[in-house]
Amino acid sequence: MELNILHLYPGLMGLYGEYANLTLLKEKLELLGVTVHLKTAEPEEAPDFAAADFIYMGAGTERSQKAALAALLPHREELKGALDRGAVALFTGNAMETLGASVTDAAGKTWEGLGLAGFTTTETDRRTPGDVIALPALWDSPVVGFMNKCSFTTGVDSPLFPSLFLGFGTEKEQGSEGYVSGNLFATHLTGPVLVKNPDFFDLLVCRIFESKGWTCPDRFPDIPYQREAYEVTLKELRAPRK
After folding, report:
1. What is the bridge-based pairing of β-strands 143-154 and 179-181?
2. Which of 74, 98, 77 lies closest to 12, judged by CA?
3. Which of 117, 129, 190 is nearest to 158 (CA)?
4. Cα(149)–Cα(118) distance, rounded to whole angstroms?
5. 225 phi and psi, to 5 degrees?
6. Is residue 189 classed exposed, middle or buried when 0-12, 13-18 and 19+ CB atoms within 10 A define those classes?
7. How many structural domains compose the chain?
8. What is the largest distance, in Å, between two alpha-carbon atoms of the chain?
9. Contact 27, 3 (CB under 8 A)
10. Is residue 63 over pLDDT 90?
11. Nearest Cα to 121, choosing from 133, 139, 145, 105?
């Protein structure tokens, strides 16, 4: 079993240590007997979407996001083709916003999006950082994480998280958050989202296996302290705020 992971623009879109998601994903897949090839694509390169089985892009500054979007736009049909054939993709932080119809910056300039979803994003001059507990639609356990954005995203018709127990959603406090369509997953949560959330991690691994025609494992290998760290974080975030 062989698998190709494509990491888009880590130099631009790696603001919160997003590389850790792929480091741990590669480790877990190898424990399951998969030979993993991890490739990166920088803005001056044409991403090899034809060979990609899993595609990832993390968060960047607002300026970096626009540079990544400009680099990716000429290749959106190839990206769409990869998704249409079943490749799994995860976009985190403000990478999520590039998937929509447009992004309007705080100065009022509108940037064309990839058009893989119908939502639109408007940036503001107000930043809303904070911890998050998200309630997913596709699995049972809450997701924990951190968000740091200065935008509102409207028109999301298929949120990854129908509501938040804690945090600011795409449009409002404790509102819906993220986006999912088939094997395309997106969330404004930043950093090592998969490292922090073992059940989300395992869901994506199953999707990857299914997309390759492999049988999803009955049991996943334990990553030392991953689930323990998740439980501690969830307990601390649920504790009453002073």
Report:
1. unpaired
2. 98
3. 117
4. 20
5. 70, 0
6. buried
7. 1
8. 51
9. no
10. yes
11. 105
- For residue 200, the enclosing domain spans 2-238
C-alpha 182/C-alpha 207 separation (Å) is 10
Cα-based angle 46, 189, 93 (whole degrees, multiple of 5):
30
> 208: closest CA among 106, 95, 82?
82
Parallel, antiparallel, or unpaired: how do β-strands 184-187 and 179-181 relate? Answer: antiparallel
Report pLDDT digits (tens) over 161-185.
999 999 999 988 889 999 999 999 9
- pLDDT digits over 21-54, tens only? 999 999 999 999 999 999 999 999 999 999 999 9
DSSP per residue over the chain, as a string?
A: -EEEEEEE-TTTS-TT-THHHHHHHHHHHHHTT-EEEEEEE-TTS---GGG-SEEEE----HHHHHHHHHHHGGGHHHHHHHHHTT-EEEEEGGGGGGGSSEEE-TTS-EEE---SSS-EEEEEEEEEEEEEEEE-SSSSS-EEEEEEEEEEEE--SS-SBSEEEESB-SSSBT--B-EEETTEEEES--SSHHHH-HHHHHHHHHHHHHHTTPPPPSSPPPPTTHHHHHHHHHHHHHSPP-
Angle between helices 19-31 and 198-211 (to 10 degrees): 60
- pLDDT tens digits along 95-109: 999 999 999 999 999
Query: Residue 192 is part of a domain; what is its CATH number?
Result: 3.40.50.880
How do residues 225-234 score in pLDDT, each as one tens digit?
A: 999 999 999 9
